[in-house]
Structures are given as C-alpha cells and as structure tokens.
Amino acid sequence: DGGITQSPKYxxxxxxxxxxxxxEQNLNHDAMYWYRQDPGQGLRxxxxxxxxxxxxxxxxxxxxxxxxxxxxxxxxxxxSAQKNPTAFYLCASSPDRGxxxxxxxxxxxRLLVL
Amino acid sequence: xxxxxQLGSHVSVSEGALVLLRCNYSSSVPPYLxxxxxxxxxxxxxxxxxxxxxxLVKGINGFEAEFKKSETSxxxxxxxxxxxxxxxxxxxxxxFNNNDMRFGxxxxxxxxx
Lengths: 114, 113
Fold this sequence. Notes:
A: mainly beta; B: six-stranded mixed β-sheet; about 60% strand
C-alpha cells in the first residue's frame, strides 16, 4: 500500500535536547511538507521541499531544521532553540508543487516536553 | 496571499440532521479549495476539492461543497449526519501557480444521538 509513515507516534523531549521526527513516503511524490498543529490554530507550515537536496522555510521555521537526501524521506529536527515545541506534527506530500495538487498526510507525531 | 476563514470553531448537530460547515476564502487569483477531515490523533484525509471543473463538488462519505465566487464561499454540507462524522474539519486554499496551502483554524463537529 502506498502512503506516508511517521514515527514515532509519541516523542518526549527533555530541555536542551534535539529530537528528530521521521517521515517516509512511497508515493513517488516530489514535494514534501512539515506542518505544526496547535489547538484552535489549524496547520502552520514549517518547511517544504520540492525536490531532493532542496528545501525552503515556511511560516514558522525558527527552531527547526530539515534535510532531503532521498526522495522518499524528509526528517524534521526540533532543536533546543524551539522554546515551545509541544504540538502535533504532520508530514505531507504531493506529486509536485503545482497549484491544485492534493497534499496527502501522514498519521502525525505528538511531541511532548518532559 | 490566499487565506480561509472557518466560521464557528464548534458545531453540534443531532444524528440525522443537516450538517453545514462554513468556509470563506480570500484569493487574488482563481483558487483551488479543499476540505479535509481529521479524526482524533490522526492525520488529515481529503474529503473533496474544487479545481474549477464544476461548482458543486461531491466528496467521500456523502459530503459535498459548493463554490460560490460571488460570496467567496465554499461551505461543506451533508444531508444527514451520522455519529461517525464526529471529527474536526479543515478548509484549505491554494493558488494555481504554487501549492502553498493555507488552512483554516478548523471546525469541530459533534453529533448527538
């Protein structure tokens, strides 16, 4: 079955720690995205990538970093510079960055701070 | 830049009643419009999308939405609510030259027995 997988489902971060969220897709999509979801605020774009070895900042990139070394993988690192990381993180992909393309979402990772 | 506004953060209906979730958009060019559904602790699933082929769009699970340019609206409806429709619903907009998708704040639908 084609789809997007995210791991882990829950992740706990200690103060000053960097953590990495995994996102893998086997849909052969060129574009991938990371969103942050907070209650009552909808989804906000953190980073996106249109192609391997290229990525762009979204609206709330501060305190986050990404890489795109393989087409199917787009991991997100939440760094210690992100002071309020508790949120639900969603990864998505689309065939390309053209307008009207449906974005397909993974099941999400919930990040909690210890 | 494009944006959407969802009117009503919470909507409650009785089982069997009409579901109406409101979405208004803002876009300087013809928009693409989407409705997604999210069940607790899950990702988003596409319900339907508007790409200018037809103003009335039918989606999964009996939902449909009508694009009204004059009202800049794309409201989601379902004639008869089912308990399984209880979820959060997001309206989203993107434009023809990029896939920068903007989401509304979401509407939580509760269905009472």
